[in-house]
Amino acid sequence: MQTFPVDKIHNVVCHECKSLNAGIVADILQFLDDPATHKTHFFNGRYENIYIKAEQIPSIEPILKMILQESAKLLDTSEESLQLGFWINFMQKDDVTTAHRHDDDDELLSGTYYLQMPEHSGSLKIKHDPGSSITIKPEEASLTCFHPTVEHEVSKHLSPIPRVSIGFNIGYKKDAVPD
After folding, report:
1. Cβ of 9: how many Cβ atoms within 10 Å?
2. Would residue 84 count as lying in a domain?
3. Cβ distance 169 to 100 under 8 Å?
4. Considering its fold, how many domains does the chain have in total?
5. Is 62 within the bounds of a domain?
6. Most buried pick, 20, 88, 120, 159, via CB within 10 A?
7. d(CA 150, CA 165)
8. Is 22 helix (H, G, I), strand (E, B) or coil?
9. pLDDT tens digits for range 28-80
């Protein structure tokens, strides 16, 4: 097992996943306004994190599996030892995601998988050091991974078509933490 370097960003496109994205977005839309859908991080008039259970959107399973596989490779460990926590980020025109980090608990890796990225979608800005940052223009079906302590944000989404992504954290299952 290895830790993911703080100064590294991993980006890969899952070409075989792209055909699944529209169906997943359609399934997500069914639960966005459901009163049982848990939402957190209310900033600038919207919830940044929307939690829909994987069982409610079975079409998402291949994407979650791919995220776990890629994470296991990056961390040099088995998929079975890892747990994935995920949420949906749904941005309408003029929405932003405020600067934040994912190091609240025992996360090993954080990232985003991009389901729907219309023209003029907000870009991911990753800040490694004060005064230096990297901007990533998201591409549909791409997966971007980074260390959970790295501050990041999403610039203003300018398209009338929603920008939809899956945010996630990877950690060890409680019974699989190495010595």
Report:
1. 18
2. yes
3. no
4. 1
5. yes
6. 88
7. 19
8. helix
9. 999 999 999 999 999 888 999 999 999 999 999 999 999 999 999 999 999 99
**How far is 119 from 78, CA to CA, in rounded Å?**
37
Kindly tell me if the per-residue pLDDT of 131 is higher than 90: no
Closest CA to 112 of 43, 35, 14, 20: 14
Neighbours of 6 (CB within 10 A): 11
Alpha helices in 1-131 (DSSP H): 21-29, 61-75
Residue with tokens 């203003």: 156
> What token pair was written down for 72?
């296991």
Count of helices and strands (H, E) across the chain = 2, 11
Shortest CA distance to 113 belongs to which of 4, 3, 20? 20
Cα within 13 Å of Cα(134), Cβ side: 13
**Prediction pTM value:** 0.93
Per the structure, the complete domain to which residue 33 belongs is given by 9-173
Q: Name residue, tokens 């190495």.
A: 178
Q: Is residue 2 part of a domain?
A: no
Q: What is the pLDDT of residue 20?
A: 98
- Would you state the structure tokens that stand for residue 125, as one six-digit string? 């800005």
**Is there a domain that residue 3 lies in?**
no
Take residue 36 and report the two structure tokens written for it.
């049982």
Which residues, 6 or more positions from 126, have their beta carbon under 8 angstroms from its beta carbon? 9, 133, 134, 135, 136, 146, 150, 151, 152
pLDDT tens figures, 104-126: 778 999 999 999 999 999 999 99
